[in-house]
Amino acid sequence: MVEQNESSSDKSASKPSPADSFDMVDLVGDHEEEVHEGGKTVRRRGIFLLPNLVTTAALFAGFYAIVSAMNGRFESAALAIFAAMVFDGLDGRVARLTNTQSKFGAEYDSLSDMVSFGVAPAMVMFTFALSGLGRLGWAAAFVYVACAALRLARFNTQIDTADKNFFTGLASPAAAAVQAATIWVCEQNGLLGKELPYLVSILFAFQTILVGFLMISNIRYNSFKDMDFRNPVPFVVMIAIVLAFGVVWQNPPAVLLLGFWGYALSGLISAFLRKFRAKNQ
């Protein structure tokens, strides 16, 4: 009888508790990274919630754009891409304002950009206008996705050495805005994907390829990161901003399309002018 009690006690002692079992089967690993604080390298566990929530919102907007395009809601898809641009512009600023920058946040933001400004614009444009072109359509969409991936990879490798005031190649959010604004303008004017003329679909295919190549080009684009919103500005600047809002409100898709195409072409024009001046000197 004593032996049975001892045997049962040994079994109960060797049987792991629920907490021990949970530790042994770690279903979700915790994040840990090295950071420099006060001149020392320390290891920090966990992630910052606020900036990564904003990045998640940008990721969701890109995913929503793809789903909307699959269901034929192309205007919603275009607006979702613009929403992703807003969230993408906020997450970095939120991280800097709250001093919550991290390697995890930078990598997460890059992956979110690949979905929202790489895959989503290509898939939305493909569903809208390129699916009827056969191999040319999916080739144009893939070229765009590949160029966006290459653009983001190059940006990540040059982030510590590149000039902060300029981008090398068209930024992926601006390229996505060109695609989204094009689709939005067509939707506003009743040009649905199935009703697009064949030549217009061909034009959109070459636009997709061109915008993709601009992303991986060596053309310099102004990043506007040197703008300081904390310093006072003349009163006329506020009036100009109010007028700009009024112009955009008249026809948002057309104004956005012209604005982002103007930005996309500004790098080409600046590069041409620099070469022209260099030859004449």
Topology:
Blueprint: H1 2-14, H2 18-24, E1 32-37, E2 40-45, H3 49-70, H4 74-97, H5 103-130, H6 135-158, E3 166-168, H7 172-188, H8 198-216, E4 220-222, H9 235-250, H10 252-280
Antiparallel strand pairs: 1-2, 3-4
Helix pairs in contact: 3-4, 3-5, 4-5, 4-7, 5-6, 5-7, 5-8, 6-8, 7-8, 7-10, 9-10
- Radius of gyration over C-alpha positions, nearest whole angstrom: 25 Å
Task: Indicate the multimeric state.
Answer: single chain
Annotation field: number of helices: 10
Integer count of domains: 1
Question: What level of helicity do the residues show?
Answer: over 70%
Please tell me what the overall shape is.
globular
Strand order of the largest sheet: 1-2
User: At CATH's second level, what is the architecture?
Assistant: Up-down Bundle
| CATH class term | Mainly Alpha
* Strand residue percentage: 5-15%
Main sheet properties: 2 strands, antiparallel
* SSE ordering: HHEEHHHHEHHEHH
The computed structural class is mainly alpha
CATH superfamily: CDP-alcohol phosphotransferase transmembrane (TM) domain
Overall mean confidence score, pLDDT? 82
Give start-end ranges of low-pLDDT stretches. none
What is the terminal separation in angstroms?
106 Å
Counted beta strands? 4
CATH topology: Four Helix Bundle (Hemerythrin (Met), subunit A)
